[in-house]
Amino acid sequence: QIADKIIFKANQPWLGIGADDWPGHVGGVHIRQILPESPAAKANLQIGDIILGINGKSWHQADDMAEFVKTTKPGETIELEILRGNQKSVKVLKVASMMGEPFVLLD
C-alpha cells in the first residue's frame, strides 16, 4: 500500500517564524509571522520584532539567518537579541523540530 510507503524527510530545526529583511535599515531581520505553539510564540516574540542577532552573531538578511537556523539541532537552546520599539532584549528559545515534506518511497 502507498500509505505504508510515505516517508517524511528528516526533522528540520524550526523556530516558527516568517521573517524578511528589514528594509531601509543596516541590520536586523523583521518578524512578519509567528506560528501558534511555536518556539517563537512560547518565547513571547511578536510580529514586528526585529531579530538583531542569534547567539551573539548579527544578522542582516532573513535568508542568511534561516540558513543558520538549519545548522541548529532540535532541542538546542539559542539566544535571540530582539528590538521591539526602542527596547532591546534577549529571548531564549528552544529549537523545535518540524517534519519535512512527505514523499512516496517507490519500489
Total number of β-strand segments?
10
The number of distinct helices, counting runs of at least 4 residues, comes to 2
Model regions low in confidence, pLDDT < 50 over at least 5 residues = 1-5, 100-107
- Biggest beta-sheet profile: 6 strands, antiparallel
Task: Describe what you observe in this structure.
It is a single chain. The protein has 107 residues and is mostly beta strands. It is 12% helix and 43% strand. The strands form three sheets. Strands 3, 4, 5, 6, 7 and 8 form a six-stranded antiparallel sheet that branches. A hairpin with a 2-residue loop joins strand 5 and strand 6. It is globular. It starts with 5 loop residues before the first strand and ends with a strand. The relative contact order is 0.29.
Task: Please describe the topology of this protein.
Elements: E1 6-8, E2 12-14, E3 17-21, E4 29-34, H1 39-42, E5 50-54, E6 57-58, H2 62-70, E7 77-84, E8 87-94, E9 96-98, E10 102-104
Antiparallel strand pairs: 1-10, 2-9, 3-4, 4-5, 5-6, 5-7, 7-8
Task: Tell me briefly what this model is.
The chain is mainly beta. It is built from two helices and ten strands, in the order E-E-E-E-H-E-E-H-E-E-E-E.
Give short descriptive properties of this protein.
single chain; 107 residues; mainly beta; six-stranded antiparallel sheet; two-stranded antiparallel sheet; disordered N terminus
